[in-house]
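To fix ideas, we quote verbatim a fold written out as tokens:
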Amino acid sequence: MLELSLQIALLIVALASLLSFYRLFVGPDLPDRILALDTLYVNTIVLLVIGGILLQSALFFEAALLIAVMGFVGTVALSKYLLRGDIME
């Protein structure tokens, strides 16, 4: 029963990732695209965690942690660039 629930969750999150890709490429403004990129990395983290549970591998959790850190830094850098036009002060 748990495996079926995880597979359904995997399918739903994969669909959410496709919708985030659509917003990333078609988004009307730059802030919409940054938000879509942020949502996309969160969806990727969830996909890795669900895959790690299904395959019973700790390697997926480590990859999810790395993506979380890099995604946070990337979102902050893009937001600073959008607000100020420069990343470093």
Q: What stands out?
A: DSSP finds three helices and no strands in the chain.
